[in-house]
Amino acid sequence: MSRIIRLAGAQMGANQKADSRRQILDRMIALLDDAAGQGAQLVVFPELPFTTFFPRWLFETQAEVDAWFETSMPGPNTQALFDRAKALGVGMYVGFAELTPQGQHFNTSITVGPDGTILGKYRKIHLPGTVEPRIGDRFQQLEKRYFEYGDLGFPAFRGPESWGRAIMGMLICNDRRWPEGWRVYGLQGVELMLIGYNSAAYDPMGGTTEDASLRTFHSTLAAQANAYMNATWAVSVAKAGNEDGSGLIGGSVIVSPNGIVVAEAKTLGDEVIVADADLDACRQGKEKMFNFAAHRRPQWYRPIIDQVGAVPPA
Amino acid sequence: MSRIIRLAGAQMGANQKADSRRQILDRMIALLDDAAGQGAQLVVFPELPFTTFFPRWLFETQAEVDAWFETSMPGPNTQALFDRAKALGVGMYVGFAELTPQGQHFNTSITVGPDGTILGKYRKIHLPGTVEPRIGDRFQQLEKRYFEYGDLGFPAFRGPESWGRAIMGMLICNDRRWPEGWRVYGLQGVELMLIGYNSAAYDPMGGTTEDASLRTFHSTLAAQANAYMNATWAVSVAKAGNEDGSGLIGGSVIVSPNGIVVAEAKTLGDEVIVADADLDACRQGKEKMFNFAAHRRPQWYRPIIDQVGAVPPA
């Protein structure tokens, strides 16, 4: 079987609060068509691509919050994207705000196969931000208020034959900065990591020392190094641009198992990036430098699970 | 107290097998003088700086192996360096091959304070290479043969008042590619990570897909990203150049808690790099993005200690 897969990142420009769901969905379908036209077999969309990044706003009622969530996936507001992907025979990673029948809220992503089958599901574990709004700030980061922490762990899964049975993993936004999540996937032999994000172009917690350039550098650095240290391909895709006055970085990238950026978005708008990924290029790292069985020493890693916060020496 | 410390990396060029110990020590003292002349308070030397990188050679007898080791530190072959450092009031990180009174062999580093006190000791945990020599290869990587795995964990320690009571950690060479070690230090609030290395300018395990440029990129990438993800300064220092026909990368760097390279060696020879590190620059990361207490979710990290090698999904 072929172990080369053509990957696409479908970076999205800003979604304004006032944009209709159909307007946004049409842009996503246009990106899908563009990627498929370039021969992509798998298209990665950002985190929460169907709406604006709503956790920046404080809502008064739970009904206002729930209006941003999907109660089924696909559902009435998303079905057309799934139909087009299936018709094109193209798979996709797509994020969404998930409201379960039991009333739980998660920041979720799924990977859909070329035949429309849902291959894997992930719920964001590293939720940034705060539960309580920060008084006086124009924009909030309320993911800890609106979502529960992901409860599915970091579950790797296999792609179909046409994707070389790739071992795949998913992360969402802030997760990509946490080496623990990458490593749990690495310990499942991950060959292809899919990531969507919305990252503020400024310090979302109110500081003034981080600008868009630094934050884009951090985003790329985290993808490169964690891909390298786990010998995996990675596709990391932004929703970018100015959403109702709040800036989001772009910098969508496709990264090789050597940590090299092989495709990179140049704009802050809707933009498709494409690269061919040879999954067997993961073998050099997995069998040598990062041959975990030969070189890891878990008896010294216990604080990683025994501690949550940092405890300085006396 | 001041929380700004002037750091130096003392990159070393090649040490040939035939070089005398005194010849090499004199070069180290010259580097120390150079760094002190530039006002450095702490000078980082490479891994195994006192000799050639001897694990590339297969030795027939244990006596031949032991000849590369130090039975005390400082000892007769190293005392002059310690004396000069103390006279200058400069601290240092220095690696050495440690042979204990009990006959144990470790790849070790110590950090020495400005008054000559040994502040911390680390024994390399992530030993690369093989126990058995690879037949037919001109150069070996026999660290797993000549050294035992480090048995001290990743112990952070405090610098003196004149270093702002910095929380410090040490790694050695291959350790810098393993996020687990960095994170265990991160969980102790590390603000300054010291690293020495000897890294082949080719794939030391016999492959042909890695060259000096790629391997230097990997070295820098690992230092940058792990410094960023743990909000710490890092000084990562090479022994470089051509040792008896076997190439070593250079690329010594000083990296900020933002993952930015603030000083970088330009040669493959003896070269001092210097930068001022404001330890309080770690606070932005430690209190916000990488506020571990607020954002880590250890219940999902268990495979990191429960597994050694990778286990792919069915």
UniProtKB/TrEMBL annotation, chains A, B:
Ranges in a coiled coil: none
Keyword Translocase set for record: no
Residues annotated as domain CN hydrolase: 5-279
Gene Ontology terms, MF aspect: hydrolase activity, acting on carbon-nitrogen (but not peptide) bonds, in linear amides
Record PROSITE patterns: CN_HYDROLASE (PS50263)
Pfam families: CN_hydrolase (PF00795)
Protein's UniProt keywords contain Hydrolase: yes
Keywords: Hydrolase
InterPro entries: Aliph_Amidase/BUP, C-N_Hydrolase, C-N_Hydrolase_sf
PANTHER family from the UniProt entry: NITRILASE C965.09-RELATED (PTHR43674:SF12)
Name of this protein: N-carbamoyl-D-amino-acid hydrolase
UniProt source species: Neoroseomonas lacus
Lineage: Bacteria, Pseudomonadati, Pseudomonadota, Alphaproteobacteria, Acetobacterales
